[in-house]
Design goal:
Helix content: 25-40%
Strand order of the largest sheet: 3-8-7-4-5-6
Largest sheet: 6 strands, mixed
CATH class of the largest domain: Alpha Beta
Order of helices and strands: EHEEEHHEHEHEHEHEHEHEH
InterPro entries: 4pyrrol_syn_uPrphyn_synt_sf, 4pyrrol_synth_uPrphyn_synth, UROS/Hem4
EC number: 4.2.1.75
Number of domains: 2
Pathway: Porphyrin-containing compound metabolism; protoporphyrin-IX biosynthesis; coproporphyrinogen-III from 5-aminolevulinate: step 3/4
Number of strands: 11
Strand content: 15-25%
Radius of gyration: 19 Å
CATH topology of the largest domain: Rossmann fold
Catalytic activity: hydroxymethylbilane = uroporphyrinogen III + H2O
Function: Catalyzes cyclization of the linear tetrapyrrole, hydroxymethylbilane, to the macrocyclic uroporphyrinogen III.
Structural class: alpha/beta
Oligomer: single chain
CATH architecture of the largest domain: 3-Layer(aba) Sandwich
């Protein structure tokens, strides 16, 4: 069974390799590309913590040469994977939330910080961390450091594969990716054919745009993490192949 991975690089290749280790073949069609913005990252003095909702923020900070000054600040990461990447880059005080923005906000609120939180983020925010922490008396300074630019066309090798039904499932990791996917396949897959294509989604929020576009064969991960996505993909592949 061949899967289609839609997440950006370098994460797409990492997922492909992990699926290969599970004996699942996959092709890559990144639907967004990260671009680092020319941001002015504030000096670390005065900030009580750094909030991270994506490894892309870490990559952008590295591109901007801003990591050295920030490594002494406690980090609150949205999940284990982002926390792992932060530790690899030299952050010593790292707390991982449970994979959602709500759990990140709760983790930060429970820390009872004395000072504002620096939030290097993407230009397109999927949630309002500042709004979530305001009732707790915490100020969040949001600095857009990267932008995920949507692709305007699927790769040529992938288009005929989708038309021919070559993929056992499409893996989708973010709501915005799901929205882009539905737009790019609008002229490739007729609405009556869309229920035949399984879509494996990180969460219900990711799945919502797909349901509205008639992709109704939705498989959800048990938890918003890469490990859960791999687990549900393996289980789905085994169920379909009878292995």
């Amino acid at each position: 069974m061949r899967m289609l991975i839609t997440r950006p690089e370098p994460d797409a290749q990492a997922t492909r390799e992990r699926l290969a280790a599970l004996e699942i073949e996959a092709e890559i069609a990144p639907l967004m590309t990260r671009q680092t913005l020319g941001a002015n990252v504030p000096r670390p003095e005065g900030f009580a913590a750094l909030a991270l909702t994506s490894t892309n923020a870490l990559r952008a900070l590295e591109d901007l040469g801003a990591l050295d000054g920030l490594r002494g600040i406690p980090v609150f990461a949205v999940g284990d994977r982002t926390a792992h990447e932060a530790r690899k880059l030299g952050f010593a005080q790292v707390t991982a939330a449970d994979g959602t923005l709500d759990s990140l906000a709760t983790s930060i609120a429970l820390a009872r910080l004395e000072g504002p939180v620096l939030y290097p983020a993407g230009r397109h925010l999927s949630g309002d961390l500042a709004g979530a922490l305001a009732p707790h008396g915490l100020m969040v300074i949001t600095v857009p450091v990267y932008e995920m630019v949507a692709e305007t066309r699927l790769p040529d090798p992938v288009r005929p594969g989708l038309i021919a039904g070559r993929y056992g499932a499409v893996l989708l990791y973010s709501r915005r990716t799901a929205e882009i996917f539905t737009t790019l396949v609008a002229d490739l897959i007729a609405p009556r054919e869309r229920p035949n294509l399984p879509v494996i989604c990180l969460s219900e929020n990711v799945a919502q745009p797909l349901l509205g576009a008639h992709f109704t064969r939705v498989v959800l991960a048990d938890h918003p993490s890469e490990e859960a996505m791999l687990a549900v993909t393996l289980a789905f592949a085994r169920e379909q192949t009878g292995s």
